[in-house]
Amino acid sequence: MSTITVRNVTHVFPGGVLAVSDATIEIRAGEFVSIVGPSGCGKTTVLNLVAGLVDLQQGKIDVAGKPPRAGRGDVAYMLARDCLFPWRTALANVMLGGEYRGVPKSDREARARLFLNKVGLSGFEHSYPKALSHGMRQRVALARTFSLHSPVLLMDEPFGALDAQTKLQLEDVLLDLWTAEQRTVAFITHDLNEAVTLSDRVIVMSARPGRILADIPIDLPRPRSVRALQKDARYHEIYAEVWSWLEQSLLQAHMI
Amino acid sequence: MKRQGIIIGVLQVVTLVAFFMLWEWAAVARAVDPIFIGQPTRIFDFLYESIFVTGSLFKDTAWTLGETAVAFVLGSATGIAFGLLFVVWPPVERFFNPLFAGLNALPRIALAPLFLLWFGLGAPSKIALGFSLTFFIVLSSTVAGARSVDPDWLILSRMLGASRAAMFWKVTLVSAVPTIFSGLRLGLIYALLGVIGGEIIAGRHGLGQQLTYLAGTFNTNGVFAVLFFLSILGVTLTWVMGGIENYLLRWR
Ligand SMILES: Nc1ncnc2c1ncn2[C@@H]1O[C@H](COP(=O)(O)OP(=O)(O)O)[C@@H](O)[C@H]1O
Ligand SMILES: [Mg+2]
Question: Which of A96, A192, B171, B239 has the fewest beta carbons closer than 10 A?
Fold first, then answer.
């Protein structure tokens, strides 16, 4: 039984841009799946359809047995931008979801503190975002995303705006959180290393209109460590396979 | 850079002293008739007398500040309320837009005779004039602030399960506060301008009325004294607002 089912979904934006064409994706409960593809191929559109932020036109989408709807409690969402409110401290930012949902203050505060600790930000509870580095801010966003009890996580290039080293650190934080929590994750990225490192499966989309080109299982053992994988032969083999699919997609689109 | 600051400070003091000495000399030597330019030492005497001896300046200041405060509070409260209404419900803005555009284009001081007719010589006509200036400034800064809310913040809030009301109060409104504040800072100065303007045109109390009276009796020293005092008052008001702003917006 899949937690996220996207079946034969096609999406046309006003003005006639065919963004997604007949896409079918299945993500099982507890699975970490990355979606890669050339820029503009419709990855964000697919994710926003699943999130319920964009209305479904054609096809069928099912998230944990229900049609998508923005704001349902069982789906969390994270973007490349941390979207922290500058007028709230790190702690108050993490507490935001609980606040919107009417969770009692002591509960949401305890949970926010717990997750700030898990992302390595103990001691920064009362810092305002302006006093935090990019990486730290994205850690706060991770804590905000995970501190909700949502079993489904939708992440749109969450580390896309970070420098290479910070990115590696945050991938480790994400791996730890995910291993401990077993959420179902749909993870969009244009970084193949990241996709292979984190995922159980990598789905490669074609250039616009986005179709599913390949669905590649990543049979690397878990728990994984970002650093150890860099020296792993199997890792590089899988990387090469995923790259050949993406290369094909980019060639098709005359992007390389 | 600290050294540069000291040099500039010293230059400022030297220039100021030189300026006042030249001014004093011009008046004493009658290079220019003191009826036009007054005389610094006498201006100072006037200030000293009316602040520390008779205290007459305080009574007028209390009137002016009181009227300014009422004009400012009413003007900004109404401005913020209308601004938020416009943002939440755009048809209301479309309805009021031609009227407000017309009123706002009117040189507000031109309304003074009408306000005198309606509200009389006392405080209400001055308050109305201050209000008419503050309202539009705060209104437009509220609308601009609330419209410029980051759409990603709203998307994130929606995904986090925020109600429309929560999104408005906790995101749109809070994110507009810095812009609203810059409107309030300006609005306060304009409230003072409206009130003083009203007092100058006709009135029984206030610093503006004092100015008219002193000029009418050719008391040039008095006029300058009140002008200095007004300038200090304006700077103080701006400074207090800046302090409140820095405290409330300490996250910036
Ligand atoms: N709101 C919109 N209106 C019109 N076209 C859009 C809109 N959003 C995205 N598109 C177009 O749809 C295509 C897919 O966009 P997107 O899903 O953001 O791609 P990706 O995330 O893979 O880079 C792009 O060509 C983009 O220009
Ligand atoms: Mg995208």
Answer: B239
